[in-house]
Amino acid sequence: MKVKSSAIPPARPAQLVEHCVITGILDGTYPPGTPLPSERQLAETIGVARPPLRETLHRLATEGWLTIAHGKPTQVNDYWEKGGMGLLSTMAKYIDTLPAGFVTHLMEVRSRLLPIIAGLAVNQAPDDVLTFLKDAEQLNDDVNAFVDFDWQFQLFMATKTGNSIYKLILNDFSTMFETLATTYFSLPEARAASRQYYRDLSAAIQSGGRRVGTVVMDAMDQSVVLWESLKGA
């Protein structure tokens, strides 16, 4: 099953420049370590004026995609080495051209991060987490309902950790999550697995909370397996 990408060539000059440059980097047209074509060439190729081109290139440089030095050609960075969390929201728009394994790696990171967040949240506010989970019992078997509930639950737990940095980290995942989760929850098995996860987590909290981390990690690992199954769909 193919992930639906929002990377439709836009009409606004700045968005068009971003689309052409980012897809070019991700699909290998502009390989890491090589110079971009000159501003004049890019402007002619893309069909935009140079001011919006220059402005967009500088913005992409601040995200880590490019290195701009006065008097030298603009270099394409290895975004694995130079990029930061800010790249995620941009990359979410270009799912179709992401490198192989990227999504799986992202989900594996979540499977290690979320058990920590859940453990802290339950330790700080177990009753609040249980109250939130009660809404899962009334979830419709609907893709959008699961996308919204699951992400809001993750953000809620991050808020309850007592450490605001976790919320900031998850905020960087928000656009990427929405794009990927819509595809993931199109699987009936994924929705069923999440229902069971919410039940298991509620039970773990009510029994003292010692198994919360294990329950969350098991559920996240299962989500990676289910995502991998989409490749053959």
Describe the structure concisely.
With 233 residues, the chain is mostly helical.
Please give a handful of descriptors for the protein shown:
11 helices; 2 domains; Four Helix Bundle (Hemerythrin (Met), subunit A); Arc Repressor Mutant, subunit A; about 230 residues; mainly alpha
Architecture overview:
The chain is an all-alpha fold and about 230 residues long. It folds into 2 domains: about 15-85, Winged helix-like DNA-binding domain superfamily/Winged helix DNA-binding domain (Arc Repressor Mutant, subunit A), CATH 1.10.10.10; about 100-230, GntR ligand-binding domain-like (Four Helix Bundle (Hemerythrin (Met), subunit A), Up-down Bundle). It is built from 11 helices and 2 strands. It has helices at about 15-25, 40-45, 50-65, 80, 85-90, 100-125, 125-135, 145-160, 165-185, 190-205, 210-230; strands at about 65, 75. Strands 1-2 form a two-stranded antiparallel ribbon. A hairpin with a 7-residue loop joins strand 1 and strand 2. The radius of gyration is 21 Å and the shape is elongated. The termini are close together. The mean pLDDT is about 90.
- Main-sheet strand order equals 1-2
Radius of gyration: 21 Å
Under the CATH scheme, the architecture of the largest domain is Up-down Bundle
CATH topology of the largest domain: Four Helix Bundle (Hemerythrin (Met), subunit A)
Count, helices: 11
Would you count the extended β strands for me? 2
